[in-house]
Amino acid sequence: MLITLIYAFPVLVLLAFVEPAEGKVYASRKQAISEAFPTATRVTDETVYLNDGQLERIQRLAKARLDSRILRLYTGFVDERVIGYALIDVHTVRTLPEAFLLVISPTGQISRLRLLAFYEPADYLPHVVWLRQFQDRFLDPDLSLNQKIHGIVGSTLTSQAVTSSVRRALAMYHVLIEKKTAANLLLSDKD
Asked: 64: which of 59, 129, 164, 189 fits an S-S bond (Cβ 3.0–4.6 Å)?
């Protein structure tokens, strides 16, 4: 017993100086959606169940794995005009989750990216200045680390997680919204 305590003592001393990771929630879902579309006269909320083909296309375009086939898509309107789409993406950074609100313009580019929750240690928290590099980005080959997206020194996993989140949201736009929007425009041109 004494030998066990002697070996355990350095570990116990070390643990006394290690701060536990504290998660922080920055905004609720309801607050985030209202901030996503501040000028909206109406916001719709649709649950989408991805089929195998949609899931495969989203993952291929995003170059990132999708953890769920179920997603909630929010659409903001001013009268009958769509002003944007929003998704909340929850994913694991290292071992703990973070959540982002991603707002996509009707033309398919990121118009807003907002951190909603972060449970990793604060040292790995993505700074708002770093997040700005995703503003107005489309899904293209340059939307990746070491291309047009610069990493966070000392937070490679956070950089990868956020970049993958943005790519997933834009891939979802291409697979679920873009074709539907184009079809609606064709129908309205015939009227």
From this structure: 164
